[in-house]
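Q: My labmate handed me this sequence with no annotations at all. I'd like to see what the chain might look like in three dimensions before we decide whether it's worth expressing. Could you predict it?
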Amino acid sequence: MLEPVWLGAAAALAAAPWGWRRLRLSRAKHPSLAGHQRMAKRVARWLPGYALQAPQAFALDGAPAEMLQARLQGWQALSQRLRAAAPQTLALTAQARDGMPDLRLTGRYRVPYPFAELARELPVGAFWVRNDGPWLIDLDGNRFLDLTGSYGVNVLRLDFYKGTMEEGARLGAALGPVLGGLHPCVADNVARLKGLSGMDDVTFHMSGTEAVMQAVRLARYHTGRRYVVRFAGAYHGWWEDVQPGPGNPLPPRETYTLADLSEATLEVLRKRRDIACVLVNPLQALHPNRAAPSDSTLVGGTRAAAFDRDAYARWLQRLREVCTEAGIALIFDEVFVGFRLAPGGAQAYFGVQADLVCYGKTLGGGLPVGVVCGKRRWMERFRPERPADLCFARGTFNAHPYVMGAMNAFLRALDRPEVRAAYDGLDERWRARERRFNAALQAAGVPVRVAALSSIWTVLYTQPGRYHWLLQYYLRDAGLALSWVGTGRLIFPIALEESAFEEALQRFVAACRRMQADGWWWRDEALPPEAWARRLRRGLLRETLQAWWQTRRRDRAAA
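A: Here is what I predict for the chain of 559 residues:
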Protein backbone atom coordinates (compact mmCIF):
# COMPACT_ATOMS: atom_id res chain seq x y z
CA MET A 1 0.00 0.00 0.00
CA LEU A 2 2.93 2.33 0.63
CA GLU A 3 4.48 1.84 -2.80
CA PRO A 4 2.57 4.71 -4.51
CA VAL A 5 3.60 7.06 -1.69
CA TRP A 6 7.25 6.09 -2.01
CA LEU A 7 7.10 6.37 -5.79
CA GLY A 8 5.61 9.85 -5.50
CA ALA A 9 8.25 10.90 -2.99
CA ALA A 10 11.02 9.54 -5.21
CA ALA A 11 9.60 11.39 -8.21
CA ALA A 12 9.44 14.59 -6.18
CA LEU A 13 13.05 14.20 -5.03
CA ALA A 14 14.18 13.53 -8.58
CA ALA A 15 12.37 16.63 -9.83
CA ALA A 16 13.66 18.86 -7.02
CA PRO A 17 16.98 19.83 -8.68
CA TRP A 18 15.17 20.72 -11.90
CA GLY A 19 12.68 22.78 -9.90
CA TRP A 20 15.43 24.69 -8.12
CA ARG A 21 17.15 25.43 -11.44
CA ARG A 22 13.93 26.76 -12.92
CA LEU A 23 13.29 28.86 -9.82
CA ARG A 24 16.78 30.39 -9.95
CA LEU A 25 16.31 31.14 -13.63
CA SER A 26 12.95 32.80 -12.99
CA ARG A 27 14.40 34.93 -10.20
CA ALA A 28 17.21 36.10 -12.53
CA LYS A 29 14.80 37.43 -15.13
CA HIS A 30 14.02 41.13 -15.09
CA PRO A 31 10.41 41.69 -13.93
CA SER A 32 9.57 43.83 -16.97
CA LEU A 33 8.42 42.49 -20.33
CA ALA A 34 12.00 42.96 -21.55
CA GLY A 35 12.93 40.08 -19.26
CA HIS A 36 10.00 37.84 -20.17
CA GLN A 37 10.12 37.36 -23.91
CA ARG A 38 7.31 34.82 -24.22
CA MET A 39 4.98 37.07 -22.27
CA ALA A 40 6.07 40.05 -24.40
CA LYS A 41 5.10 38.14 -27.54
CA ARG A 42 1.69 37.29 -26.05
CA VAL A 43 1.09 40.94 -25.15
CA ALA A 44 2.14 42.00 -28.66
CA ARG A 45 -0.43 39.61 -30.18
CA TRP A 46 -3.11 40.80 -27.77
CA LEU A 47 -2.48 44.54 -28.14
CA PRO A 48 -5.13 46.00 -30.45
CA GLY A 49 -4.32 48.50 -33.13
CA TYR A 50 -6.26 51.73 -33.20
CA ALA A 51 -5.86 55.10 -34.87
CA LEU A 52 -6.56 58.41 -33.16
CA GLN A 53 -8.11 61.17 -35.20
CA ALA A 54 -7.88 64.95 -34.98
CA PRO A 55 -9.01 67.01 -33.19
CA GLN A 56 -9.77 64.51 -30.38
CA ALA A 57 -6.23 63.12 -30.63
CA PHE A 58 -4.86 66.49 -29.55
CA ALA A 59 -6.85 66.68 -26.32
CA LEU A 60 -6.03 63.31 -24.74
CA ASP A 61 -4.62 65.01 -21.66
CA GLY A 62 -7.71 67.12 -21.03
CA ALA A 63 -6.24 70.33 -22.44
CA PRO A 64 -8.67 73.30 -22.44
CA ALA A 65 -10.26 74.60 -25.64
CA GLU A 66 -7.77 77.45 -26.16
CA MET A 67 -4.85 75.04 -25.84
CA LEU A 68 -6.46 72.63 -28.27
CA GLN A 69 -6.79 75.46 -30.76
CA ALA A 70 -3.12 76.35 -30.36
CA ARG A 71 -2.16 72.74 -30.97
CA LEU A 72 -4.28 72.49 -34.10
CA GLN A 73 -2.73 75.64 -35.51
CA GLY A 74 0.78 74.49 -34.57
CA TRP A 75 0.22 71.09 -36.19
CA GLN A 76 -1.03 72.60 -39.43
CA ALA A 77 1.81 75.12 -39.57
CA LEU A 78 4.43 72.42 -38.90
CA SER A 79 2.94 70.19 -41.61
CA GLN A 80 2.97 73.05 -44.12
CA ARG A 81 6.58 73.97 -43.34
CA LEU A 82 7.81 70.39 -43.71
CA ARG A 83 5.98 69.92 -47.03
CA ALA A 84 7.00 73.26 -48.49
CA ALA A 85 10.67 72.86 -47.59
CA ALA A 86 11.38 69.58 -49.41
CA PRO A 87 8.98 68.78 -52.30
CA GLN A 88 11.52 66.82 -54.39
CA THR A 89 12.86 64.83 -51.46
CA LEU A 90 9.37 63.96 -50.23
CA ALA A 91 8.20 62.98 -53.72
CA LEU A 92 11.11 60.55 -54.16
CA THR A 93 10.52 59.15 -50.67
CA ALA A 94 6.86 58.49 -51.46
CA GLN A 95 7.84 56.82 -54.75
CA ALA A 96 10.45 54.58 -53.07
CA ARG A 97 8.16 53.65 -50.19
CA ASP A 98 5.94 51.72 -52.62
CA GLY A 99 8.73 49.19 -53.22
CA MET A 100 10.69 49.35 -49.95
CA PRO A 101 9.11 47.65 -46.93
CA ASP A 102 11.91 49.09 -44.76
CA LEU A 103 10.60 52.60 -45.42
CA ARG A 104 7.03 51.53 -44.74
CA LEU A 105 8.05 49.96 -41.41
CA THR A 106 10.21 52.84 -40.18
CA GLY A 107 7.66 55.41 -41.30
CA ARG A 108 4.88 53.74 -39.36
CA TYR A 109 6.88 52.98 -36.21
CA ARG A 110 8.54 56.36 -35.97
CA VAL A 111 5.79 57.34 -33.52
CA PRO A 112 3.51 55.56 -31.01
CA TYR A 113 1.16 53.41 -33.08
CA PRO A 114 -2.13 55.21 -32.17
CA PHE A 115 -0.70 58.33 -33.85
CA ALA A 116 0.79 56.58 -36.90
CA GLU A 117 -1.99 57.57 -39.32
CA LEU A 118 -1.99 61.18 -38.11
CA ALA A 119 1.79 61.41 -38.39
CA ARG A 120 1.56 60.90 -42.15
CA GLU A 121 0.65 64.57 -42.25
CA LEU A 122 4.18 65.34 -41.02
CA PRO A 123 6.31 63.95 -43.87
CA VAL A 124 10.04 63.29 -43.48
CA GLY A 125 12.33 62.65 -46.44
CA ALA A 126 14.60 59.60 -46.61
CA PHE A 127 17.16 60.80 -49.18
CA TRP A 128 20.40 62.75 -49.02
CA VAL A 129 22.57 63.69 -51.99
CA ARG A 130 25.78 64.81 -50.28
CA ASN A 131 27.35 66.09 -47.11
CA ASP A 132 29.24 69.27 -46.31
CA GLY A 133 31.22 68.55 -43.17
CA PRO A 134 28.67 67.71 -40.45
CA TRP A 135 25.77 68.86 -42.66
CA LEU A 136 23.56 66.58 -44.77
CA ILE A 137 21.98 68.07 -47.90
CA ASP A 138 18.75 66.76 -49.46
CA LEU A 139 17.46 66.93 -53.04
CA ASP A 140 15.99 70.37 -52.39
CA GLY A 141 19.26 71.83 -51.12
CA ASN A 142 18.19 71.94 -47.47
CA ARG A 143 20.99 71.57 -44.93
CA PHE A 144 20.58 69.48 -41.78
CA LEU A 145 23.09 68.98 -39.00
CA ASP A 146 23.66 65.23 -38.79
CA LEU A 147 22.73 63.67 -35.44
CA THR A 148 22.15 60.18 -36.86
CA GLY A 149 25.75 59.01 -36.51
CA SER A 150 25.01 56.66 -39.42
CA TYR A 151 23.74 54.19 -36.78
CA GLY A 152 27.11 54.22 -35.03
CA VAL A 153 29.46 54.21 -38.02
CA ASN A 154 30.29 57.92 -37.81
CA VAL A 155 32.76 58.07 -34.93
CA LEU A 156 35.27 60.43 -36.55
CA ARG A 157 33.26 62.75 -38.87
CA LEU A 158 31.78 61.98 -42.28
CA ASP A 159 34.65 63.48 -44.28
CA PHE A 160 37.08 61.16 -42.50
CA TYR A 161 35.17 58.13 -43.82
CA LYS A 162 34.96 59.52 -47.32
CA GLY A 163 38.76 59.55 -47.16
CA THR A 164 39.10 55.99 -45.82
CA MET A 165 36.65 54.68 -48.43
CA GLU A 166 38.63 56.34 -51.22
CA GLU A 167 41.92 55.04 -49.82
CA GLY A 168 40.49 51.55 -49.49
CA ALA A 169 39.33 51.63 -53.11
CA ARG A 170 42.78 52.70 -54.28
CA LEU A 171 44.45 50.01 -52.19
CA GLY A 172 42.20 47.22 -53.47
CA ALA A 173 41.86 48.41 -57.08
CA ALA A 174 44.89 46.52 -58.41
CA LEU A 175 43.54 43.21 -57.07
CA GLY A 176 39.83 43.83 -57.66
CA PRO A 177 37.13 41.41 -56.46
CA VAL A 178 39.46 38.46 -55.90
CA LEU A 179 37.92 36.61 -52.98
CA GLY A 180 39.75 33.30 -52.81
CA GLY A 181 42.97 34.81 -51.44
CA LEU A 182 43.83 37.82 -49.32
CA HIS A 183 45.11 41.31 -50.02
CA PRO A 184 48.43 41.95 -48.20
CA CYS A 185 46.81 44.66 -46.04
CA VAL A 186 44.83 41.92 -44.27
CA ALA A 187 47.98 40.85 -42.40
CA ASP A 188 48.44 44.40 -41.13
CA ASN A 189 44.77 44.57 -40.10
CA VAL A 190 45.14 41.38 -38.09
CA ALA A 191 48.25 42.63 -36.31
CA ARG A 192 46.64 45.98 -35.46
CA LEU A 193 43.40 44.39 -34.25
CA LYS A 194 45.31 41.95 -32.05
CA GLY A 195 47.11 44.88 -30.47
CA LEU A 196 43.97 46.94 -29.91
CA SER A 197 41.82 44.08 -28.60
CA GLY A 198 44.47 42.19 -26.61
CA MET A 199 43.39 38.99 -28.37
CA ASP A 200 45.24 36.24 -30.23
CA ASP A 201 43.14 35.65 -33.35
CA VAL A 202 40.89 37.56 -35.76
CA THR A 203 38.17 36.50 -38.22
CA PHE A 204 36.41 38.74 -40.74
CA HIS A 205 32.71 38.78 -41.57
CA MET A 206 30.22 40.84 -43.55
CA SER A 207 28.20 42.49 -40.78
CA GLY A 208 28.07 42.95 -37.03
CA THR A 209 25.18 40.50 -36.78
CA GLU A 210 27.23 37.86 -38.57
CA ALA A 211 30.21 38.48 -36.28
CA VAL A 212 28.06 37.88 -33.18
CA MET A 213 26.64 34.73 -34.78
CA GLN A 214 30.18 33.39 -35.24
CA ALA A 215 31.26 34.27 -31.69
CA VAL A 216 28.28 32.39 -30.25
CA ARG A 217 28.91 29.48 -32.61
CA LEU A 218 32.51 29.20 -31.40
CA ALA A 219 31.44 29.34 -27.75
CA ARG A 220 29.02 26.47 -28.32
CA TYR A 221 31.64 24.49 -30.21
CA HIS A 222 34.27 24.74 -27.49
CA THR A 223 31.98 24.28 -24.47
CA GLY A 224 29.65 21.66 -25.90
CA ARG A 225 26.80 23.64 -24.34
CA ARG A 226 23.71 25.04 -26.05
CA TYR A 227 22.43 28.06 -24.17
CA VAL A 228 23.22 31.75 -24.60
CA VAL A 229 22.63 34.36 -21.89
CA ARG A 230 21.76 37.87 -22.98
CA PHE A 231 20.55 40.76 -20.86
CA ALA A 232 17.09 42.33 -20.86
CA GLY A 233 16.79 45.09 -23.42
CA ALA A 234 20.07 44.34 -25.22
CA TYR A 235 20.37 44.04 -28.99
CA HIS A 236 22.80 41.66 -30.71
CA GLY A 237 21.46 41.60 -34.25
CA TRP A 238 18.24 40.13 -35.58
CA TRP A 239 19.20 36.46 -35.88
CA GLU A 240 17.36 33.45 -34.43
CA ASP A 241 16.22 33.80 -30.83
CA VAL A 242 19.16 35.96 -29.73
CA GLN A 243 16.75 38.75 -30.72
CA PRO A 244 13.73 37.26 -28.95
CA GLY A 245 10.31 38.67 -28.23
CA PRO A 246 8.26 40.96 -30.49
CA GLY A 247 9.83 41.33 -33.91
CA ASN A 248 10.95 37.70 -34.10
CA PRO A 249 8.49 35.07 -35.37
CA LEU A 250 10.37 32.33 -33.46
CA PRO A 251 9.84 31.75 -29.72
CA PRO A 252 12.88 31.73 -27.39
CA ARG A 253 14.52 28.30 -27.51
CA GLU A 254 18.19 28.39 -26.61
CA THR A 255 18.53 31.90 -25.22
CA TYR A 256 18.04 32.97 -21.60
CA THR A 257 17.18 36.65 -21.18
CA LEU A 258 18.32 37.62 -17.67
CA ALA A 259 18.56 40.84 -15.69
CA ASP A 260 21.55 43.13 -16.03
CA LEU A 261 23.32 44.21 -12.81
CA SER A 262 21.71 41.34 -10.90
CA GLU A 263 23.02 39.05 -8.15
CA ALA A 264 20.41 36.47 -9.17
CA THR A 265 21.90 36.41 -12.67
CA LEU A 266 25.38 35.71 -11.29
CA GLU A 267 23.92 32.87 -9.23
CA VAL A 268 22.42 31.28 -12.36
CA LEU A 269 25.77 31.51 -14.14
CA ARG A 270 27.54 29.86 -11.20
CA LYS A 271 25.10 26.98 -10.88
CA ARG A 272 24.05 25.97 -14.38
CA ARG A 273 26.16 23.76 -16.63
CA ASP A 274 24.33 24.31 -19.92
CA ILE A 275 25.42 27.91 -20.64
CA ALA A 276 27.94 28.37 -23.44
CA CYS A 277 28.34 32.14 -23.37
CA VAL A 278 27.17 35.47 -22.03
CA LEU A 279 26.59 38.31 -24.49
CA VAL A 280 27.24 41.85 -23.27
CA ASN A 281 26.36 44.94 -25.28
CA PRO A 282 28.15 47.77 -23.40
CA LEU A 283 25.60 50.25 -24.74
CA GLN A 284 23.24 48.84 -22.08
CA ALA A 285 25.22 50.81 -19.51
CA LEU A 286 23.10 53.81 -20.58
CA HIS A 287 19.74 52.07 -20.12
CA PRO A 288 20.16 48.77 -18.23
CA ASN A 289 17.32 46.28 -18.64
CA ARG A 290 15.51 48.55 -21.08
CA ALA A 291 15.19 48.20 -24.82
CA ALA A 292 16.91 50.75 -27.02
CA PRO A 293 14.85 53.95 -26.77
CA SER A 294 12.74 55.21 -29.64
CA ASP A 295 9.90 57.66 -30.00
CA SER A 296 7.58 54.81 -30.95
CA THR A 297 7.77 53.61 -27.33
CA LEU A 298 6.58 56.90 -25.84
CA VAL A 299 2.96 55.76 -25.52
CA GLY A 300 3.01 56.41 -21.79
CA GLY A 301 5.14 59.52 -22.11
CA THR A 302 8.12 58.37 -20.04
CA ARG A 303 11.68 57.32 -20.77
CA ALA A 304 14.56 56.63 -18.39
CA ALA A 305 18.32 56.48 -18.91
CA ALA A 306 21.43 57.12 -16.84
CA PHE A 307 25.10 56.20 -16.97
CA ASP A 308 27.41 55.28 -14.11
CA ARG A 309 30.76 54.17 -15.51
CA ASP A 310 32.22 52.94 -12.23
CA ALA A 311 29.15 50.91 -11.28
CA TYR A 312 28.96 49.22 -14.67
CA ALA A 313 32.71 48.49 -14.63
CA ARG A 314 32.32 46.77 -11.25
CA TRP A 315 29.45 44.69 -12.62
CA LEU A 316 31.46 43.64 -15.67
CA GLN A 317 34.41 42.66 -13.46
CA ARG A 318 32.20 40.42 -11.34
CA LEU A 319 30.64 38.96 -14.47
CA ARG A 320 34.15 38.26 -15.79
CA GLU A 321 35.08 36.40 -12.61
CA VAL A 322 31.95 34.25 -12.60
CA CYS A 323 32.27 33.35 -16.30
CA THR A 324 35.88 32.29 -15.72
CA GLU A 325 34.88 30.09 -12.78
CA ALA A 326 32.03 28.46 -14.71
CA GLY A 327 33.91 27.96 -18.01
CA ILE A 328 31.50 30.29 -19.83
CA ALA A 329 32.69 32.43 -22.74
CA LEU A 330 32.25 36.15 -22.05
CA ILE A 331 31.50 37.90 -25.35
CA PHE A 332 31.53 41.68 -25.72
CA ASP A 333 29.34 42.84 -28.58
CA GLU A 334 31.09 46.10 -29.43
CA VAL A 335 29.61 46.42 -32.89
CA PHE A 336 28.04 49.75 -31.88
CA VAL A 337 30.39 51.18 -29.23
CA GLY A 338 33.69 49.81 -30.52
CA PHE A 339 36.28 52.60 -31.08
CA ARG A 340 33.78 55.20 -29.82
CA LEU A 341 34.51 54.99 -26.09
CA ALA A 342 38.28 54.48 -26.49
CA PRO A 343 40.72 53.23 -29.15
CA GLY A 344 40.69 49.89 -27.33
CA GLY A 345 36.91 49.87 -27.17
CA ALA A 346 34.73 49.00 -24.21
CA GLN A 347 37.30 46.50 -22.92
CA ALA A 348 39.78 49.31 -22.41
CA TYR A 349 37.12 51.79 -21.27
CA PHE A 350 35.72 49.56 -18.51
CA GLY A 351 38.99 47.75 -17.76
CA VAL A 352 37.61 44.24 -18.37
CA GLN A 353 38.81 41.78 -21.00
CA ALA A 354 36.35 39.45 -22.67
CA ASP A 355 37.07 36.03 -24.20
CA LEU A 356 35.68 37.12 -27.55
CA VAL A 357 34.87 40.60 -28.80
CA CYS A 358 32.82 41.56 -31.86
CA TYR A 359 33.34 44.74 -33.89
CA GLY A 360 31.64 46.26 -36.90
CA LYS A 361 30.23 49.56 -38.13
CA THR A 362 33.04 52.13 -37.85
CA LEU A 363 35.84 49.54 -38.19
CA GLY A 364 35.02 49.13 -41.89
CA GLY A 365 36.11 52.70 -42.56
CA GLY A 366 32.69 53.43 -44.06
CA LEU A 367 32.15 50.02 -45.69
CA PRO A 368 30.19 47.05 -44.26
CA VAL A 369 32.14 44.70 -42.00
CA GLY A 370 32.05 42.43 -38.98
CA VAL A 371 35.04 41.15 -36.99
CA VAL A 372 35.56 38.66 -34.18
CA CYS A 373 38.71 38.88 -32.06
CA GLY A 374 39.35 36.23 -29.44
CA LYS A 375 41.66 34.16 -27.35
CA ARG A 376 43.18 31.19 -29.19
CA ARG A 377 41.35 28.59 -27.09
CA TRP A 378 38.01 30.04 -28.21
CA MET A 379 38.87 30.86 -31.82
CA GLU A 380 40.23 27.54 -33.13
CA ARG A 381 37.75 25.89 -35.50
CA PHE A 382 38.95 22.30 -35.60
CA ARG A 383 40.26 19.57 -33.33
CA PRO A 384 43.37 17.74 -34.65
CA GLU A 385 42.49 14.68 -32.57
CA ARG A 386 38.97 14.57 -34.09
CA PRO A 387 39.44 15.45 -37.78
CA ALA A 388 35.73 15.42 -38.61
CA ASP A 389 34.81 17.71 -35.70
CA LEU A 390 34.86 21.19 -37.26
CA CYS A 391 33.21 24.58 -36.73
CA PHE A 392 32.64 26.12 -40.14
CA ALA A 393 32.34 29.87 -40.70
CA ARG A 394 32.81 31.35 -44.15
CA GLY A 395 31.19 33.90 -46.41
CA THR A 396 31.82 34.87 -50.02
CA PHE A 397 32.67 38.49 -49.29
CA ASN A 398 34.67 37.98 -46.09
CA ALA A 399 37.89 40.02 -46.33
CA HIS A 400 36.85 41.79 -49.55
CA PRO A 401 39.91 43.76 -50.77
CA TYR A 402 38.11 47.12 -50.82
CA VAL A 403 36.69 46.61 -47.32
CA MET A 404 40.04 45.43 -45.99
CA GLY A 405 41.66 48.49 -47.58
CA ALA A 406 39.19 50.89 -45.96
CA MET A 407 39.65 49.07 -42.63
CA ASN A 408 43.40 49.40 -42.98
CA ALA A 409 43.05 53.13 -43.62
CA PHE A 410 40.87 53.43 -40.50
CA LEU A 411 43.24 51.45 -38.28
CA ARG A 412 46.31 53.33 -39.47
CA ALA A 413 44.50 56.63 -38.89
CA LEU A 414 44.11 55.73 -35.21
CA ASP A 415 47.86 56.37 -34.89
CA ARG A 416 47.67 59.87 -36.36
CA PRO A 417 48.10 62.71 -33.83
CA GLU A 418 44.91 64.51 -34.87
CA VAL A 419 42.85 61.33 -34.40
CA ARG A 420 44.51 60.51 -31.08
CA ALA A 421 43.68 64.06 -29.99
CA ALA A 422 39.98 63.30 -30.46
CA TYR A 423 40.28 60.66 -27.73
CA ASP A 424 42.24 62.86 -25.32
CA GLY A 425 39.90 64.02 -22.56
CA LEU A 426 36.97 62.38 -24.38
CA ASP A 427 34.86 61.64 -21.30
CA GLU A 428 35.45 65.02 -19.71
CA ARG A 429 34.65 66.87 -22.95
CA TRP A 430 31.36 65.08 -23.56
CA ARG A 431 30.29 65.21 -19.92
CA ALA A 432 30.82 68.97 -20.05
CA ARG A 433 28.76 69.17 -23.23
CA GLU A 434 25.98 67.13 -21.63
CA ARG A 435 25.90 69.50 -18.63
CA ARG A 436 25.90 72.53 -20.92
CA PHE A 437 23.07 71.09 -23.02
CA ASN A 438 20.94 70.37 -19.97
CA ALA A 439 21.62 73.81 -18.50
CA ALA A 440 20.39 75.42 -21.72
CA LEU A 441 17.23 73.30 -21.70
CA GLN A 442 16.56 74.16 -18.08
CA ALA A 443 17.09 77.86 -18.76
CA ALA A 444 14.61 77.62 -21.64
CA GLY A 445 12.00 76.24 -19.24
CA VAL A 446 11.19 73.16 -21.33
CA PRO A 447 10.55 69.67 -19.85
CA VAL A 448 13.43 68.07 -21.76
CA ARG A 449 16.85 66.80 -20.67
CA VAL A 450 19.50 64.51 -22.14
CA ALA A 451 21.45 61.56 -20.76
CA ALA A 452 24.75 60.52 -22.32
CA LEU A 453 27.19 57.66 -22.69
CA SER A 454 30.04 59.75 -24.07
CA SER A 455 28.88 60.87 -27.55
CA ILE A 456 25.78 58.62 -27.54
CA TRP A 457 22.80 60.55 -26.17
CA THR A 458 19.15 59.97 -25.50
CA VAL A 459 16.44 62.54 -24.82
CA LEU A 460 14.49 62.39 -21.56
CA TYR A 461 11.33 64.20 -20.46
CA THR A 462 10.84 65.65 -17.00
CA GLN A 463 7.06 65.26 -17.02
CA PRO A 464 4.72 62.62 -18.47
CA GLY A 465 3.00 63.56 -21.70
CA ARG A 466 1.27 62.03 -24.70
CA TYR A 467 2.98 64.19 -27.32
CA HIS A 468 6.72 63.94 -26.62
CA TRP A 469 7.16 62.03 -29.92
CA LEU A 470 6.36 65.26 -31.79
CA LEU A 471 9.72 66.74 -30.85
CA GLN A 472 11.45 64.77 -33.62
CA TYR A 473 9.43 66.71 -36.21
CA TYR A 474 10.17 70.08 -34.64
CA LEU A 475 13.86 69.14 -34.65
CA ARG A 476 13.64 68.25 -38.34
CA ASP A 477 11.94 71.58 -38.96
CA ALA A 478 14.85 73.24 -37.12
CA GLY A 479 17.40 71.63 -39.44
CA LEU A 480 18.53 68.64 -37.34
CA ALA A 481 18.64 65.17 -38.92
CA LEU A 482 17.73 62.23 -36.69
CA SER A 483 17.56 58.50 -37.43
CA TRP A 484 14.17 56.81 -37.60
CA VAL A 485 14.13 56.17 -33.83
CA GLY A 486 13.80 59.93 -33.43
CA THR A 487 14.87 61.48 -30.15
CA GLY A 488 15.57 58.03 -28.70
CA ARG A 489 19.17 58.30 -29.81
CA LEU A 490 21.36 61.21 -30.85
CA ILE A 491 24.82 60.16 -32.04
CA PHE A 492 27.60 62.70 -32.36
CA PRO A 493 31.03 62.10 -33.88
CA ILE A 494 33.57 62.23 -31.05
CA ALA A 495 35.59 64.77 -33.04
CA LEU A 496 32.66 67.15 -33.55
CA GLU A 497 33.82 70.76 -33.77
CA GLU A 498 32.73 73.14 -31.04
CA SER A 499 30.97 75.39 -33.55
CA ALA A 500 28.87 72.48 -34.85
CA PHE A 501 27.97 71.39 -31.32
CA GLU A 502 26.90 74.93 -30.44
CA GLU A 503 24.75 75.02 -33.59
CA ALA A 504 23.11 71.74 -32.59
CA LEU A 505 22.43 73.07 -29.08
CA GLN A 506 20.85 76.31 -30.32
CA ARG A 507 18.68 74.58 -32.90
CA PHE A 508 17.59 71.94 -30.39
CA VAL A 509 16.55 74.52 -27.81
CA ALA A 510 14.75 76.59 -30.46
CA ALA A 511 12.77 73.52 -31.55
CA CYS A 512 11.78 72.79 -27.94
CA ARG A 513 10.63 76.35 -27.42
CA ARG A 514 8.54 76.25 -30.57
CA MET A 515 6.93 72.96 -29.55
CA GLN A 516 6.17 74.38 -26.12
CA ALA A 517 4.67 77.54 -27.64
CA ASP A 518 2.36 75.34 -29.72
CA GLY A 519 0.98 73.88 -26.51
CA TRP A 520 2.18 70.26 -26.66
CA TRP A 521 3.70 70.28 -23.17
CA TRP A 522 0.70 71.78 -21.39
CA ARG A 523 -0.19 70.14 -18.10
CA ASP A 524 -2.83 70.76 -15.46
CA GLU A 525 -0.89 72.67 -12.82
CA ALA A 526 -3.69 72.06 -10.30
CA LEU A 527 -2.66 68.39 -10.15
CA PRO A 528 0.48 67.16 -8.38
CA PRO A 529 2.92 65.38 -10.72
CA GLU A 530 1.89 61.87 -9.68
CA ALA A 531 -1.81 62.66 -10.05
CA TRP A 532 -1.09 64.07 -13.51
CA ALA A 533 0.76 60.87 -14.44
CA ARG A 534 -2.18 58.76 -13.17
CA ARG A 535 -4.59 60.74 -15.32
CA LEU A 536 -2.54 60.06 -18.43
CA ARG A 537 -2.15 56.36 -17.61
CA ARG A 538 -5.89 55.96 -17.01
CA GLY A 539 -6.66 57.64 -20.30
CA LEU A 540 -4.24 55.39 -22.17
CA LEU A 541 -5.67 52.28 -20.50
CA ARG A 542 -9.21 53.37 -21.37
CA GLU A 543 -8.28 53.87 -25.05
CA THR A 544 -6.60 50.47 -25.23
CA LEU A 545 -9.48 48.61 -23.60
CA GLN A 546 -12.01 50.32 -25.88
CA ALA A 547 -9.96 49.36 -28.92
CA TRP A 548 -9.62 45.78 -27.65
CA TRP A 549 -13.37 45.49 -27.12
CA GLN A 550 -14.13 46.92 -30.55
CA THR A 551 -11.67 44.48 -32.11
CA ARG A 552 -13.33 41.53 -30.38
CA ARG A 553 -16.78 42.63 -31.53
CA ARG A 554 -15.55 43.05 -35.09
CA ASP A 555 -13.87 39.62 -35.08
CA ARG A 556 -17.00 37.95 -33.71
CA ALA A 557 -19.18 39.63 -36.30
CA ALA A 558 -16.82 38.51 -39.08
CA ALA A 559 -16.92 34.91 -37.78
